[in-house]
Design brief:
Blueprint: H1 8-16, H2 23-35, H3 41-49, H4 54-81, H5 87-98, H6 104-121, H7 128-142, E1 146-147, H8 160-166, E2 168-169, H9 171-184, E3 189-194, E4 197-204, E5 207-212, E6 218-220, H10 222-231, H11 246-263, H12 267-282
Parallel strand pairs: 1-2
Antiparallel strand pairs: 3-4, 4-5, 5-6
Helix pairs in contact: 3-4, 4-5, 4-12, 5-11, 6-7, 6-9, 11-12
Length: 286
C-alpha cells in the first residue's frame, strides 16, 4: 500500500488519464490507483459523479469494484480464519459482493426484528414439535416468508438483504433466516447439507427431526432422508443427516450465487465468486 503518497490534485490527474487512447498508459494508471488501496474509493466515487465521460466512468466503476472485491476477500479470509462462528457475518460478507455499502448492523437489526416477532409468540415450555410449529406460523404466516419459485435462480436469492426485503428465497436462504431466528430463541436448530436441497435439523441429544423451510417448515424424519438419498441413487453419508458448519453454509450460498451468474452468462462474476469459494475451502486469499 502506498497510502498518503498522492494528494487530491495528483489523484485527479491520474483519473483524467483513464480516457487515454494508449491502453498501456491506462493499464499503468489503473495499476497505480489500485496500489493506493481502498481508502481512495470515496474519491473515485466523487470523480465518477462529476465526470461527463462515459468511458472514464466505466473505468472508475471497474476500479472501485476491484478495490472493493480485494477488501471482501481479505474480510472473508479473516472470517474463515477465525472459525466462521458468526453465520450472519459470513452471509453479510456474501451480500457485500453485490451491495458493498450494506452495513452488518443494518442486516442484524432486520433479523432482530424477526426474532422479536417470534419471541412474542414463543412458548419455551412447549414440546420441540410445538415450538417448531409456532416458529413456522410466525415465519411463514405472520411474516409471509416463502419459496421464490418464480425466480429460483435469481442472484437475489443469495443476497440476505434482498430476501429480507422481498420475503422470498431459495431453500438455503429461507433456512438461514429460520435458523438465525431459532438459535436466538435458544432452539437447537442447525443446517444440513443434503444434495440439491438444504434443510434444517432439530437436534438435542437423542431427539432429532428435520425441517424443510422451503416447504413452509414441513417436519419429517430420518426415514424421508433415507428415501431421498436412495431416490438420488447415492450412498448414505453422515453429512446428509447431521448439522454442518457455518463455513459450509456460506460456501453453499456462494455456489448458488455462482450458478445464478453462470446461467446469466456473467463469466467474470463466476470467476470472482470461485475465488471466494476457494478462500473458504483453503483459508487462503487467492
Amino acid at each position: 500500500m502506498e497510502e498518503g503518497n498522492l494528494n487530491n490534485s495528483e489523484l485527479k490527474a491520474l483519473v483524467t488519464l483513464l480516457d487515454d487512447d494508449d491502453m498501456e498508459v491506462v493499464q499503468h494508471v489503473e495499476d497505480r490507483i489500485m496500489s493506493l488501496g481502498t481508502h481512495v474509493i470515496p474519491y473515485l466515487e466523487f470523480e465518477w459523479e462529476n465526470s461527463f465521460n462515459p468511458l472514464v466512468q466505466k473505468r472508475i466503476e471497474e476500479l472501485v469494484h476491484s478495490l472493493q472485491f480485494e477488501l471482501l476477500k481479505e474480510k472473508l479470509w479473516a472470517w474463515q480464519n477465525s472459525g466462521g462462528e458468526d453465520l450472519l457475518e459470513g452471509i453479510w460478507l456474501v451480500n457485500t459482493y453485490q451491495y458493498p455499502d450494506l452495513e452488518y448492523a443494518d442486516l442484524k437489526k432486520e433479523l432482530e426484528q424477526l426474532y422479536y416477532e417470534a419471541w412474542l409468540e414463543f412458548k419455551p415450555d412447549s414440546t420441540p414439535i410445538d415450538q417448531v410449529r409456532i416458529l413456522n406460523s410466525v415465519i411463514f404466516n405472520k411474516l409471509k416468508f416463502g419459496a421464490n419459485t418464480k425466480n429460483f435462480h435469481s442472484p437475489g436469492n443469495s443476497m440476505m438483504s434482498v430476501v429480507l426485503q422481498t420475503r422470498k428465497g431459495n431453500p438455503i436462504a429461507l433456512c438461514i433466516v429460520y435458523m438465525l431466528v431459532a438459535q436466538k430463541l435458544k432452539l437447537p436448530i442447525f443446517g444440513v447439507n443434503l444434495p440439491n436441497l438444504f434443510i434444517l435439523t432439530y437436534k438435542l441429544e437423542e431427539n432429532q427431526f428435520y425441517i424443510n423451510a422451503f416447504n413452509r417448515g414441513l417436519v419429517f424424519s430420518k426415514k424421508e432422508i433415507d428415501n431421498y438419498i436412495a431416490h438420488l441413487k447415492l450412498e448414505p453419508k453422515e453429512v446428509y443427516y447431521q448439522p454442518c458448519e457455518n463455513i459450509d453454509i456460506v460456501i453453499r450460498v456462494l455456489r448458488n450465487l455462482r450458478a445464478s451468474h453462470d446461467k446469466l452468462g456473467h463469466s467474470e462474476k463466476v470467476k470472482e465468486i470461485e475465488s471466494l469459494i476457494e478462500i473458504l475451502n483453503l483459508g487462503e486469499v487467492s
